Amino acid sequence: MFYHDNQLQYEVEVEEPDPEFGRMLQQAIGGVEGEMRVAMQYFFQAAAIPDEHAEYREMLRDTAAEELGHIEMLAAAVNKNLRGASASLGDGDSAVSELLPRQFLSSGMHAMPTDANGAAFDGSWIVASGNLAADMYANIMAESTGRLLATRLYELADDPGMKDMLAYLIARDTMHQNQWITLLKELGDPEEVFDVHPIPDSFPDEVENQEFSYAFMSTNVEPQEATDLPWTTGSSIDEEGEYSFLRELDLDGAPMSVPKPSAQAYNEPAPQGED
Amino acid sequence: MFYHDNQLQYEVEVEEPDPEFGRMLQQAIGGVEGEMRVAMQYFFQAAAIPDEHAEYREMLRDTAAEELGHIEMLAAAVNKNLRGASASLGDGDSAVSELLPRQFLSSGMHAMPTDANGAAFDGSWIVASGNLAADMYANIMAESTGRLLATRLYELADDPGMKDMLAYLIARDTMHQNQWITLLKELGDPEEVFDVHPIPDSFPDEVENQEFSYAFMSTNVEPQEATDLPWTTGSSIDEEGEYSFLRELDLDGAPMSVPKPSAQAYNEPAPQGED
Amino acid sequence: MFYHDNQLQYEVEVEEPDPEFGRMLQQAIGGVEGEMRVAMQYFFQAAAIPDEHAEYREMLRDTAAEELGHIEMLAAAVNKNLRGASASLGDGDSAVSELLPRQFLSSGMHAMPTDANGAAFDGSWIVASGNLAADMYANIMAESTGRLLATRLYELADDPGMKDMLAYLIARDTMHQNQWITLLKELGDPEEVFDVHPIPDSFPDEVENQEFSYAFMSTNVEPQEATDLPWTTGSSIDEEGEYSFLRELDLDGAPMSVPKPSAQAYNEPAPQGED
Amino acid sequence: MFYHDNQLQYEVEVEEPDPEFGRMLQQAIGGVEGEMRVAMQYFFQAAAIPDEHAEYREMLRDTAAEELGHIEMLAAAVNKNLRGASASLGDGDSAVSELLPRQFLSSGMHAMPTDANGAAFDGSWIVASGNLAADMYANIMAESTGRLLATRLYELADDPGMKDMLAYLIARDTMHQNQWITLLKELGDPEEVFDVHPIPDSFPDEVENQEFSYAFMSTNVEPQEATDLPWTTGSSIDEEGEYSFLRELDLDGAPMSVPKPSAQAYNEPAPQGED
Amino acid sequence: MFYHDNQLQYEVEVEEPDPEFGRMLQQAIGGVEGEMRVAMQYFFQAAAIPDEHAEYREMLRDTAAEELGHIEMLAAAVNKNLRGASASLGDGDSAVSELLPRQFLSSGMHAMPTDANGAAFDGSWIVASGNLAADMYANIMAESTGRLLATRLYELADDPGMKDMLAYLIARDTMHQNQWITLLKELGDPEEVFDVHPIPDSFPDEVENQEFSYAFMSTNVEPQEATDLPWTTGSSIDEEGEYSFLRELDLDGAPMSVPKPSAQAYNEPAPQGED
Amino acid sequence: MFYHDNQLQYEVEVEEPDPEFGRMLQQAIGGVEGEMRVAMQYFFQAAAIPDEHAEYREMLRDTAAEELGHIEMLAAAVNKNLRGASASLGDGDSAVSELLPRQFLSSGMHAMPTDANGAAFDGSWIVASGNLAADMYANIMAESTGRLLATRLYELADDPGMKDMLAYLIARDTMHQNQWITLLKELGDPEEVFDVHPIPDSFPDEVENQEFSYAFMSTNVEPQEATDLPWTTGSSIDEEGEYSFLRELDLDGAPMSVPKPSAQAYNEPAPQGED
């Protein structure tokens, strides 16, 4: 279950309120790269993990609660940037004109569960696939676009308090990128970083149509001169094949193969996390 | 610009139409893990890449066009699974009852731009962040959840034609996971797979609040016994720090630091792909 | 900031897994009447309350954290109802056929941030208006439809563990209805339950067009016989007017009045909570 | 069935067109607090009421038709505020720049079924729960946030015509708050305003887990000093219990009780309106 | 303004309630082809028409009100099909299992503002473009897909009452297709049905790049044999050009022309309805 | 399957970058009137057409691929308009302030799959009904509102390169309107343009309630003087009936007719395209 206290995780100060910057901060609350998404994503991923991987479940839940605290910090930051703004139209620089209308009309100048364009948080962004390796990539992606967003906000920020808060959040995103990659490595052979690939790794290799597993497909109508690229020659990154180069124009509705012998064998339940 | 011909990329055969399986296939068309998302995602990522990285742009566009061909294959597969189904209610096993209503009422028993629950494709799932490293993680995630979906569909499939088509699509997802990781490695030092981290790597390390960059934060109200986990001790995965363990309860609104000296320095334009 | 532990708030047991009931429970997680909505609603309402009403802010945050624990309980209940279900189609009673497809295809048979129809949680349902009295009605409404949902789930439940869990959640909804009404009364004269009306009560009565403030408007084209209804005669519920009966057909584009004298007077900032 | 005439319900005049104010008015058309929502909400609630409560059904339908007339008034007001605006960019104060782009690009400078942020009206906001008491709270909430919106618009308005129109709409919201509360009282004992609680009142009290029905749950990790608050001591607002104070930290996965004896008894159909 | 009475526009009888058919009917209420869409679409189109075209405005408003009556009929039909259904799971043919869960859980077995897949009505489907000719095509499309839906429902219907109701609604869709085409003809030369094309017809022909105005563009990578199709040869349907055939492969980034002389001339306001 | 090359279909030049105009162009990418919608709409319509109408399928696919090239052109145009824009707030004319926030925060100043208000592309706009005649009206509507949008963008454009690009796109919309009408005529008797009406034309006329098929229904509460309008007298546009005038007030719940004799006859499968 969940608890709280009356502290913010990190101090939030605004010397000079700036409604337009407040609007920008909304992206970090309710946007696709924001904290509502990661808080809920880690929450649902944790809920799917069975007891035999309790340490992964705990780690996800630890960070889910941490992210709730980040929403709180950002909501405080939005509110402080809107404080004292006068509610009027009439000249191009009024707070109401710089904000999206709903920030005044629907919330009375407070933080909202929306992104910086005013679109509502959307639960369909939450990824919890039942496969831990796939989930970790969703998390690294979320923390990469999240840190990218935070650095862009830092670039726009003038206020030292806002720069300081963002410097903290950027640091946390650094840690979270690291921790999800570390967990990803733990799932396979820790010495072989891409050992978990292809995801899901439990699907038997011989069942997929291996003729096409490592062929880069060029769909250009014109012949390509340089075809010795890192993704068309050499060993594949998962170390299970050799890259090759294939023109789509040379395909002709590749014929249907006979049913693969090991197809039935797959219908075994795969252990969660390796599935 | 884009072209087409009248062939499918790979033969699609259905021996025994199965409307319920047809409905399941919709997830691979319009679902969050499906082909509409990746086709559009690679398309928009390609459009953002400037001329100096033309080889990356080309690679993304090659695969965007390939994925359009996958939507076509899957649409053919849905249509073949619905063919001949009688339009009636009245017993629990009629095709109309096994499908979602709109597949009959709105499309006359054809493939739709929706997922298997009947929800419409949603453009907010498309990630094109303007940072190639972040985009690659979005792509690995998309191909990981996409391959996971395809293997689950394989598990449900009875028809040999459907198993064959899925074995092809699974193979392509294998290749695409590999090719995006290969591109990710190319962005940094190819010998150091996580050299691009933390993403965005152009943000100066000394500006973030480094006190918190490699500390795992436990939000558990109870003290944890085992705190020597791969993400709490040892070298961080990006090789730029040492992991440590921190209890949230020990935080007390970490005080605001003085403005970071290098903040101004950051306002230089970062080259695309490293930004 | 937020914390957690490894306990559920209340024990969740399922004797006989029932995937179809698991699907029904999703409504209480990600549905418009569900726990994600109230958790986030109380969270954002709390964030908008200034220090002078700290006790209201605290109360909202207490219950926000409690509701997060309810999502956790319900996710555990969904997972337990799906446990052991075989992943196959082929007869009308398979678990996959009873569930919405995505519960297998997208989550591998786990709880999802969606409602029972498979629609994603939508942040636009969250009400945090910046006016505490309006917010309290949003909360009573949420807890009324939430308790209604829980009793309907109770009615569908067969499993004693599920009935027990729901009996707990129903009790909590009883408390929450009571506590929001209590707070609502606190905002005005506690002896006069509707003293806060009309909401927002800070708007000067004489500015609104009082000719129409207590007139019930019949839009029926046929004359109504009984016009002495509780809402057409007698004292208004806010005790500021007398109900009357008005036929829309008797309106003729009611003429524009002169500007109201007290209009300017309103442009004072209203104290939060009374605004 | 529905009828119309060629009059507006109340005169709408704009002396000085103001595109930015026109945009603000959109919130009252297609926003979550707006008239499309209440018109449709009352319409669907009315449709669910059986003949034995025809007077409630009629009342809802009367007001549904009235609200359609409000959409018409607001659409006229938006159009009048956009009239004569020149279609050009180029300086920060052009009408196109002050509006959201679609108001020019998609409607040619007319009212749209969207809110002031440009988001489309969303049918998921419509509450018609099949329980009249719960519906009435949804209606009081809608009219409270609606009146709050109208007073905020009044505060932003400069034009006397707009102030006059809003003074009318504010008055109607006053009446509608009153009429829904009056209906709510009618559903129970009219002398006991909260007699309908807990909603739904037909669920047998002894089935819910009464140990938790009137306990305020503090989720704060720190002990609270003041625990004698209106919601922690004294008689509950529904007059069916005594408030108490409970720390979540003292819970330990409250044990599963034996099945409640009256569970079966509940499976009787509840009369609509009291359900 | 709008009025109502207590009659349905056309009698709605259900001999044998059928919950699954009730669910199908939802598509005609809240679906993209349904009555909420057309009612609101005609309403907003009417609101955009100025006084000089009052007869068109009236016609749209007449039909908007008629469509509200159709929602009412369909809501009654859904409710009658759900009447008496028992609220239980447990066997595959229970009403709750045949419906989407929310029809029981969220509305207590009543009509909802959703489509047959359970997705909420979406205001972004409403087309009111500010150009009457374009709007008429949106209306013909809506009535064509609407009538198609009604005939598919007729095909599924067993109950004579439902067949009778649908025969009425199909007839109304016939009329509405006819009336919008008639209005479309009125906008141009009534003897020349496509005189309004290309829409918008007020844009000066010489400004568009006429080299490409009547060329069918083949994007096939293979040469096409039959290129004398109705859309590649002969007079264009708007009688302003001659069709031709063009291969995309022959394009080579068609060069930028000099600015068109008449570009400035266009910046005149176009009269509404011809714009 | 699909192919591409490295050329744009038509040259895209921007002399003077204008971020605000770049934002406007987004409507033509991800808006309801934009190119993502038509590309996907023609794609799904094509996928539904069986072999006996291969020439229609081909035509749709030709234009689907052409439209993908238009998205590419528009994305290039957006990027060129944003090039060199400085990332700062602080004065009302900064690029970030003129754009929606996400264009900087989420994409790093590149084209996005959204409309000009910042709302994501929505797959529910795609119409592919399984009936070619209805689909053609959806297409004419899309190309009419699309051309209307392009002419409005032309009106806002200052840059000669942008005017030139739009003059090309407007020309293509002219062609596409013509080609869909031409296909529509081909479906019926090419000499009788509305021969396909009422859509779907395969439904037997005698089954619909013909008493109401050509009656214009006035829902005005006041009697109308002029009732000899083109839609109330004379031959109907589909040449199958005579228009008449009917007041809704004269309806009295039109009585239920006996089941129509030809109802069973309809349950034959209708050939696609005529259905």
From TrEMBL, chains A, B, C, D, E, F:
Matches recorded under InterPro entries: Ferritin-like (IPR012347), Ferritin-like_SF (IPR009078), Mn_catalase (IPR007760), Mn_catalase_dom (IPR039377)
Domain of life: Archaea
Matches recorded under SUPFAM superfamilies: Ferritin-like
Signal peptide: none
Upper lineage: Archaea, Methanobacteriati, Methanobacteriota, Stenosarchaea group, Halobacteria
UniProt protein name: Mn-containing catalase
Region of interest (Disordered), ranges: 252-275
Family per record: Belongs to the manganese catalase family.
